[in-house]
Fold each of these.
Amino acid sequence: MISIYKAKDYKELSRKAANIISAQIIMKPSCVLGLATGTSPIGIYNQLVEWYKKGDLDFSEVSTVNLDEYIGLDATNEQSYRYFMNYNLFDKVNIDKLNTNVPNGMARDLEGECDSYDSLIHSLGGIDLQLLGLGHNGHIGFNEPGESFEKGTHIVDLSESTINANARLFAKKEDVPRRAITMGIRTIMQAGIVLLVASGEDKADIVRDAFWGKITSQVPASVLQLHKNLIIVADEAALSKSPVTDNYTVLR
């Protein structure tokens, strides 16, 4: 089933998505959250922190697994995803840092790190809710166009479009890592709930192609059409080229 929530703007999108995540935490305090980085989730994390500070949320039993990490950046690097998560969420709520997991991009044995990460997710009982953003080329995590849908956590060479998109966060384009560790699509598809957020007119084409187009490895997110419980929260701009007229829509 695909449920679509239309938000007026990024602020409303962030609040709606944070509501879904907070409901998961309240219903199952020991839940496993799959988390994402990038600009899209920042408003969500800010809202969750606000509710925590008001006493509405308790993260003490929550475990997390992040989608991906750059290869070659350690946790103290401000562009690493571990640093991002600490700064935007983990350092601001009462989560046990030992229960927060991000792939180790500095591992000596990177293939072994991938296998260990999948084993970790399995040992936690799987992911209850996986948060995703959506790349302009349809990538989810760092699963680039052409990647097999059957892969678990693996090493990926980043596409030029992804490097260009992320370059704004670095001093210069040359500083952007060329490789990353990412959860595979197989791992993502095993999550109980997938929550995908998309904001802005620049995402309108890929939202339409991913969820109203054919399922193809050239648009990795299109496989989410087959997920048993996909929730899309997108603003009006991101849905402007999709056939959504109501504030809440259920597809198939």
Amino acid sequence: MLPVVGCSTTNVFTSYTSKMNLLIDGLTTRQFNHSLKVLNKYRKSNDKILYLMERGRIAQIKNDTDSSMKDFEAAIAAVRQMEEKAVISASDVGAQTTSLLANDNTIPYRGDGYEKVFMYQFQAFNYLAEKDIEGAGVEVRRANREQELALKMHEKELARAEEKARDKKIDTQKAYNNLNSAYQSMDDVAGKVKNSFQNAYTFYMSGIVYELLNQPNDAYIDYKKALQIFPDNAYLQRDVMRLAKDLEMDQEYEDYAYRFGSMPVKGEAGAGDGKTGELVVFFENGLVPQKKEIRIPIPTPNGILAIAFPIYHTKWSEVEPLSLSESWSSGSLGTTESICHAQALAVKSLKEKVPVMVIRHILRAAAKAAIQLKANDSAGSLGQIFSSIYNVVSERADVRSWLTLPRDVQIMRIRLPEGAHRLHLAHKASGASSDIDISMNQNKTILRVIRIRSELYTTSITF
């Protein structure tokens, strides 16, 4: 049990969500500096990747690009260090051993695949804020590669877990059935995505960056990838049709026109006459759901034990669009449409871990049972009582995840006359609203809107 003492900076006995919820509450009153100061204490902890991602996100919401960039750089470096290890280091062995004595919270946080994709994408936003389009291009390419890498790493982790189960002669089928039965309540949300590794928001943003880099072929490829995930998004439909026409992909253009119907691919709603520019709106709506703990009876070599697992209790709800209008006009410029269900990515990611979690938890149950037996042999009934108490107290689910990510993401893309505009943003479902001044030229203006409860945080970048 001694290694657990050295894990005070992790969440062995204290829930990560309980720490973060106080900071999230502070965001609604714009207490950014307090949140950043608290999170800074954990920059060198075993969970530094998680805390750095939270810091980078909060600094970005604050529009502190420099701090956000540094935090994401540190998180990216830590992720690469973990991914590039050719062999398991001594510290990793210690963490894995300690996890058998305590719980999964002792294992240093590595970040889920969907989280790392967001990490690179948000860093790309920082480069765009600095008008460094080349730097943004590097990050969106990394984000796209991460989507491929996440799938490969998931397959390898699953193969290793299954091999370990065979070596230990562990019968996992009943445990799988029990856990999957308890997880059925998540099926509705998880079913909204095919896997947790592909993010249409990332593909769409990379398409925007490629267009800014004057690389329309690359933009077209990524818009098509996003469209495969969200085929009903009208803005995506327009983009692939527009570029198919511009790139003289005549057959593909005809195919899209047949699927989506004839629609204007230039001068969309709001263009009017004269010189216009493109307004691209990214709306990051709400906060991703949080994991809770549930006790599930699992058959182990030591009998049926109630083991703590993470679970999402979130229910699916329809997307709540953001509407835009000119402040001086009652007419609407349009509303946003879905391009990413981050809540579904998070839930799907947890469900994909079922085989690995089951095997690890069965091994932990066996290790704890062996310790309890040895305590009884060496210290009698008193030792057995203490080890029993420890086993109960230390049985905690790993509920760590990046909690300041959006619940869902929506986009909007329209043309507006060149010049100054005062836009009114309204989110009817939450009652959040805001006015923002933007400047349009003949290129692109990106408007990013982040909603946390009833607050809208905005930033605009004109190229």
